[in-house]
Amino acid sequence: MTTDITTKLKTAFAAPASKEVTFECQIHGVQTYTTYQRRDGSWADPCCPECRRIEKERAELLAEMQADAKERAVGLTRALHCERPLDFDVPCFSNYQPETQEEERNLSICRRFAERFTERELERERAHNAQEPDWRSKNFMGLLLFGNYGTGKTHLAYSILKELDRQGLPGYYITIPDLFDRISDRVNRIDVADVLGKLCMVSCLVLDEIGVQSGDADEKKRLYQIIDGRIKNGRPTILVTNLDRSELVNLLTERVVSRVIQSSYKLFFTGRCRRESVRRSAEEVF
Known about the structure:
The protein is an alpha/beta fold. Helices cover 49% and strands 15% of the residues. The N and C termini lie far apart (89 Å).
């Protein structure tokens, strides 16, 4: 009996058997890995040491990026005293209903922009850390959504931000009127330089209702500073407007619009307005 117990204890605490295995990684070629034998007698699957190192570095870098993104988004919300809109929760990619080929294409591009966002951010961050000359180009291209009222431009912008939330890289949404109201507020003064810095660094900035503003010289200057600052930091911006290019030039100047065009992929929305409600009788309404 004592011998059996001693044997079992030795077996339980014995170091597992190990052996070297040579195999071919599809990415890094022939690799040698020291695997070990499990208690049930099976052997642990070998893995590529280089792939494991890359995965670990990716996870660490992504965790750092996610922490920074959350801090910046929360910081903007506090600085501007501007939460997300009340209607933000409803729109998403799955309930956007395209009615034309143009809208199907717009949906596809917006979804791709959002779903591959983390990978582009990782590419930008790695290139920046390595001080590669073109690091800014990895993820500075945003979207310019312009066209008719009620065609789903803001719906898709909300959907993109929701996907970024899911990836742990939250962006920030604000309308142009709200932004300039808060910057110029003489009662509840904010640190404008600090806010502009945060706007230039948040992971993805959505500026909606471009054109619903006075368009004075100070607003044009601030908008240029934001867009230019984001390009210089390799950050994408989504701009939403009902104006066409000539109207944008009249409102913002050619200088600002050229910077917008340089940093944006243009999507046109020429469909019907979804805001037009079905006509109902007075008895049904009231």
